[in-house]
Specification:
single chain; alpha+beta; 7-stranded mixed β-sheet; 6-stranded mixed β-sheet; 29% strand; globular
């Protein structure tokens, strides 16, 4: 009898030890502007004429499949970062199907990634969306927030897309993916769009905090502005360090990297940090569960152009309208959460 009890205790101890080893204590949350991921099918409701086999970019099935293969390489390598990729926000995708095609590629199929997508009214026909690991993240709610620019009733852009879910059955995360208006037409002309986007994002965060004080909120996206811009620092209201950070404050770890010359996008031989991930004070100093640990730009050697006038820039799919066969004009960014 004693031997039986001892054996049971040993087995229970071994099972508990095995379970503890397999219980995740890190998670990777990332964002990637994938640069115009369009299919080859004409959609009369979208401005996709350039991305057709007969269009300016001669966007054939061969080129589309090559683009998927390139992106799958990046995302698969990102998934191998210690902690494992749980959520990846993306921008510049045409529709849900292109993400389903991406998730079904040979490299990504083993990860079983799911898609959380919403059709935006953008004039170019591009959306923001999420890829996520359903084994670790369970989606419980989604909400789209249209961007309205004061005194510009004709203005149309991407919606801001909020996904709420449970990480590892313990932590509720509120993740807002963005693609703010670009600087097309010049800084002065385009600025009101980004100011309005910053205000909208702040309002969304404030609404979440009002219902759930200290909520674990993450804002990510191509904000088309650097971390020291008015739209990010004043409208969104980000802090540049964690000192005296309250649970409902927003902290932007990309600010320090940008000050140090690190960026996610190259323009006129300088690096800009257009791709930001902002976290709430409730994620930096949580009472329990996951917390923010660090932020990074994903910089694999193959992501950079090796020669020519764009040497050292992100190796993109098109440059100056000429097909290059690369990955994207942006580098992915990500944060590490840990327990």
């Amino acid at each position: 009898m004693r031997k039986t009890c001892l054996l049971i205790c040993v087995l229970l101890f071994a099972l508990n030890a095995l379970f503890a080893q397999n219980t995740p204590n890190k998670a990777i949350i990332g964002f990637y502007n994938v640069e115009n991921l369009f299919d080859t099918i004409n959609d009369p409701n979208k401005n996709d004429e350039q991305f057709l086999p007969t269009g300016d970019y001669q966007w054939t099935s061969e080129r589309y499949l090559h683009k998927l293969d390139r992106l799958s390489q990046v995302i698969a390598d990102l998934a191998k970062v210690d902690g494992g990729l749980v959520v990846l926000g993306v921008s510049e995708i045409e529709n849900e199907q292109v993400l389903l095609d991406l998730a079904a590629t040979e490299r990504l199929k083993p990860y079983g990634l799911k898609v959380c997508h919403h059709d935006s009214p953008d004039r170019r026909g591009v959306d923001v969306a999420f890829l996520y690991n359903p084994k670790r993240f369970r989606v419980i709610d989604t909400t789209a927030f249209p961007l309205i620019v004061p005194n510009q009733p004709e203005f149309i852009s991407r919606d801001q897309w909020l996904m709420t879910g449970i990480l590892d059955n313990t932590d509720t995360l509120y993740i807002l993916v963005n693609h703010w208006p670009s600087k097309s037409g010049g800084e002065k002309r385009s600025l009101p769009g980004r100011l309005a986007a910053g205000n909208l994002s702040r309002d969304i965060a404030t609404g979440i905090f009002a219902k759930h004080p200290g909520a674990k909120f993450i804002l990510m996206g191509d904000l088309n502005d650097n971390p020291n811009s008015k739209a990010i620092m004043e409208c969104l209201g980000t802090k540049t360090n964690t000192k005296k950070l309250t649970p409902n404050d927003l902290y932007n770890p990309m600010w320090k990297m940008y000050q140090d010359g690190i960026g996610s996008y190259a323009y006129r031989d300088s690096w800009e940090m257009l791709d930001n991930i902002v976290v709430s004070g409730g994620l930096v100093y949580p009472s329990r569960g996951y917390k923010y640990q660090s932020a990074h730009v994903f910089r694999k050697d193959y992501l950079f152009t090796k020669s020519g006038s764009y040497m050292g820039y992100p190796f993109r799919m098109f440059a100056g309208g000429v097909y290059q066969g690369g990955y994207s004009d942006h580098l992915p960014v990500y944060i590490v959460l840990t327990k």
